[in-house]
Amino acid sequence: MAGSLSGMVGDYLFEQRIRADRSQMEALAVRIAPSLYRSDAAALQDQLSSAGGELGGRVLLLDRYGKVQLDSYGEMAGVRLQYPEVVNILVRGQSGDYGVHALDSGERLDTSRLLFMRRPDTGWVGYCTAGVVHASDVIGVLLLVSPVQEMMQNLYQLQDQMVLIFVLIAAAALLSALIFSRVITNPIAGLMRGIQRMAKGDFSARVKIKASGEMKQLALAFNSMSEKLETLDQSRNQFVSNASHELKTPLATMKIMIESLIYQPDMDKELRTEFLSDINSEIDRLSNIVSDLLTLVQMDSHNVKLTRENLSIATLVKENAHRLQPIADQKSQQIQLTLSDPCDIYADKSKLNQVIYNLMENAVKYTQSGGVIRVALSRQGRDAHLVVSDNGPGIPKENLPHIFDRFYRVDKARSREKGGTGLGLSIVHQLVLLHGGSIRVESEEGKGASFIVDLPLHQG
Length: 460
Hints:
Heat Shock Protein 90, alpha+beta, single chain, 3 domains, five-stranded mixed β-sheet, Helix Hairpins
């Protein structure tokens, strides 16, 4: 590119030089034509000497046969010249010509290739010719010999500078491209390393966010996905561990009791009956755990379908309060209902009934004797607002974020004694979400707990 550009500059400068020299030579040829026709040697010599000083070169006048008649330097008179520039006028009929010759060999060179044919020890001269015409007849030739070495050196320097500039520009562009490519590829490489770690099962992989724009958004999305997968993996492992423990406990208990029955055939009848009753209770407990696990698995696989129908939430609350009243009476508890609206809804009756029963049963189960369970139902905008509260021992603040986790128990020993599987609230949470609602808990230790459910009302 540098060579091409400098060649274009050289061609332009040579063209300007040729036009200037030919224009001056043609004007001089017109002026001396009468003097040459009259053979006025004195006038011709004066004109050539004056022109040589003005044109900055050596001016020679040749006759129609190519012989030098006059030389502004006075050295080549009588010498026949056969330069191509002279021949082109006398033989081929051109009005003028221009050529560049090497001083050492006299070789005429193509001006368009001078910049690509450097010869440090060679001098360059330009030969510019113009025909001297009188009455439409060529009677002589004017030849201007002018040095072009300085112009060639300037062009060579220009070419060197341009090559240097283009080399520097190319180096800067290459360096910028390398830096820019590293800026782009480094975040991509980091993301690829994170993906490879994740593919190997390491969900703790995170990408350092150093980029901006789309790459930053991509890194944020990857980290978010990785965090969710890690949480899901930890939750799955915890679920498997808890499920195994919950299933193992009743099995171990039953094994001990059955072995006692096997190895003590003469066991007292009442004790045997008690052992069998305990085994039956453990089987029921095991069956409840398996049933709850199957319910959660179906919810996780999104295979649970809601069979919706028109119903009243207030009616479900009353029915469940009636079912739980005998249990509450045994503990001298009160169940107080505040139903300000029937809250007609288009929902799955059995699943919504399970939500209400579980919440009210938990309140009865974990509230001390003589306690009060309050159930309030109201309409808030387009939602049904259900609050199940008690004045029991409450839930410690550190346990509140985990209250809907699977197999999570605030008091593990007392929860098992009361027959809980640790899955009830998880199922309630999932069922509420299936209906497009939300559930939360508010509690202060020693002051009871309140479970608050908001369900969108869909009229049938």
